């Protein structure tokens, strides 16, 4: 049923260029409708039967519509095109709506926690009439359907916001099951365990909510791209003919489908500008078409024909590797004008390296004096690049 619904919607949206936004809004609408259906049906049954617990559960479903509205609004705003105030688009708003859903989950968890503490202090009997039982079972079925539906759509469009909304739906299933379990145990043994079961469920809800909040905070702060995406970029850059190498790759994500990157491309310094421009243009175009990444390339000319420059280049590489195989040097160049000849280069230092920049500078300078001669080294330390 769920797969059929998703496939039908996908076929209807084939001509839509922004399939992700369409699916997100579709999921929000389906959640909103199903939560409103539960609210109306429970409220009517509660009014007819006079059951306060069913009417209270109806109000809970009304609050669940807030999550659906947040999801709906989040995807709607995220799908808006770039404008003057937001030149990189609005996709990050999806993370904000997901964060709000996560905060709502955590708030509900704390409310349930306090209610469970009160139930432990002052145990109350749970009376589940046949009408209430039917309503609760119906609620479980709808909420399970909701959770699975959100999860399937989340997997299809890779959305953490819908994962959070799915957890919100499944948390409602756990709380309803807790009521039924407590009522069953009380009916069979007379022991009132409602508060204790509720406390365990509340702790789980709070934990899941806090985990989601952390994930969305990381998304908003900026995470390292997944290794698969980095490997794809490396594979393509390594396959480009003519270029000598590449380094200083930076990747910025402004939403799930909005990725920008910059990289330094090493080329033979004998290339003329039109040829270099043509080669760089081709790399940027390929990244856009095949990887969906807006790439900006910086050209680093490398001297391949001067023997002295080549000797300096090889010796610096050897010195760096002798200190640590994880260190990488690039943009190595010799400047001989001035009071004293200088060797300039950038040094990429891996995370959590066990020596300070100053300690590395001293060790490298000492080895340069021994291996190359009386040259001053000027090192720029890089700590933030992926490649």
UniProtKB/TrEMBL annotation:
It comes from the Bacteria. The chain crosses the membrane at residues 21-45, 65-83, 95-114, 126-149, 195-213. It is a multi-pass membrane protein. Gene3D superfamilies: Cation efflux protein transmembrane domain, Cation efflux protein, cytoplasmic domain. Keywords: Membrane, Transmembrane, Transmembrane helix, Transport. It is found in: Membrane. GO terms for molecular function: monoatomic cation transmembrane transporter activity. One of its GO terms (cellular component) is membrane. Residues 225-301 form the Cation efflux protein cytoplasmic domain. Coiled coil: none annotated. Residues 31-221 form the Cation efflux protein transmembrane domain. It holds the Pfam family Cation_efflux. Belongs to the cation diffusion facilitator (CDF) transporter (TC 2.A.4) family. This is Cation transporter.
